Amino acid sequence: MIWLYHNETLSSYFIKEGEVQVPIYVNGSEITCTFTVYILPHTGSSNGWIGAYYLSNKSLEGKVSIPLTFFIKDEFQWIDKIFPTVNESSYYLDGIQVGMEFNDYNGIAELGYTLYCWIMSTAQGVKILDEA
Predict the structure, then answer these.
(1) Matching InterPro entries, A to Z (predicted)?
(2) End-to-end CA distance of the chain, in Å?
(3) What is the per-residue pLDDT across 89-121, written as a single tens digit (0 to 9) for each?
């Protein structure tokens, strides 16, 4: 999960593993954004799924473009620190969540997302998965 905007914190059940700097685009300008990385250990049972959570250290607003491929490839660097015996090839990607987490402190929330497209690069080339 990638949180671009948040005022929530993760519970102690999540394990904070470090930070990573990622080049992203905000309103057409490239910036380097620091994301704090948390790992959610197996859920439900000892062989349940593992979650990698990236929380932006900045509240990102406007038109934001992030390199999903980077996050997908980067997650096992952090998972290995908690589960050194996990074999990366035995896991599969179940979902990518990009969004925000917030708490209703003042009773008003004005927000929204518009997804323009998902692009995935593979060894065979670039494929546009969905375009609005």
Answers:
(1) ConA-like_dom_sf, GH11/12
(2) 22
(3) 777 777 777 777 666 666 666 666 666 666 666
